[in-house]
Protein: Ribonuclease G
Organism: Oceanimonas pelagia
Amino acid sequence: MSAELIINMTPAETRVALVENGILQEVHIERQARRGIVGNIYKGKVSRVLPGMQAAFVDIGGERAAFLHASDIVPHTECVDTREQAHFQAGNIAELVRQGQDIMVQVVKDPLGTKGARLTTDITLPSRYLVFMPGSAYVGVSQRIDSEQERDRLKRLAAEHVDEQGGFIIRTAAEGIGEQELAQDAAFLKRLWRKIQERRGKYPSCSMLYEDLRLAFRIVRDFVGAELDRIRVDSRETCDALRTFVDEFVPELSGRIEYYQGNAPIFDLYDVENEIQRALDRKVELKSGGYLIIDQTEAMTTIDINTGAFVGHRNLEETIFNTNIEATQAIARQLRLRNLGGIIIIDFIDMYDDDHKRRVLHSLELALSRDRAKTNVNGFSQLGLVEMTRKRTRESLEHVLCDACPECNGRARVKTVETVSYEILREILRVNKAYDADKFVVYASTAVADALQEDESHMLAELEVFIGKQVRVNSEPLYNQEQFDVVMM
């Protein structure tokens, strides 16, 4: 399988696309004015403690206070004073933090919608091969390293660098590396941790102590171990900086970074721009003629599968099964492409064959296995729905690129012309009862004005007879479909 990263740089925005076998699979966007803060470490101040929620709000210097739950506070961190260790009660927020207290925290989830960032006191610092865990004596190994012999070897090597500063988790990319590379990574992370601790002592409250890498560098770091054929960048400055970064931290990717000098925009390669636009649509067409309907809400995402124009070749059950199998591949891709997370409910077309259900679930799990985000798929419920979760840390593509519709106030629906016409007639009746007017003038969108003068003209005539006053309708092209004014004359 061929895979490459395409990086588009502008002063205001960085965009990274992962293309596998010529098909866009993931899009990551970071805007300079709204950079994500996941991974950043702050010296925060507890602004409010909520015992009823077992949580606290922490000011980290942003627009909204961040959220720290009791379960995200670990006893080995400085938030639990050493003199109070004996009184530490896991899960009791009142025993863990107090209002006005300074506390070092790390962001694990970006602010989403109206919710503030999610915090933890369990600080972790990732590098090429290791993740450093300050204050812990633990050594863990990535589950994706299958060989028990290799796992034991890496554990022994990492254990030599565990001291009072902390322990490590060994990343998948460490498989097969030597002792020297692991030692260099461990030393780098310890130096970084000492620097953060020095800043904590010098910096005031609500200050950032450590900022995670910019998107282009973070993506390259996180894609270590993936089979990337090349990384193309349309900025010479960023390309040079990435080469320096890769030579130091990801040497096996050296030589794969290319400066793109083509005349066409880099995102026109593999039709990336159009694929991004299609990823914002509710409807996703399947090659067979079926389709998906994807609806994203704050609470969950729902995916509905339909056969559409696909009529099959054998029988109905076989047609439904084939459509559901095809849908599993499309669903897995759309989850990655749209960066959908949290609770996801999938409404497959009803199947009565238990073997078909098992094969559809297996196909979905297999398709999701390439997803770098953690997923968990449950079986079919009594209602025939498949419930799954996908780890969410950053905003979805739709939340990054879109805003609430100003015409429907975020409902994603617009009132029909007929509905607005009847609202206008009711408003005329209301105003007529409340005020003494000689006649009325209605200003409405072109579509609504045309309806009142044509399809609903008989209703308007009856209203004029009923109130004994003239009603004139004027078209206002700048008005949206739901907007109107009733003016007394």
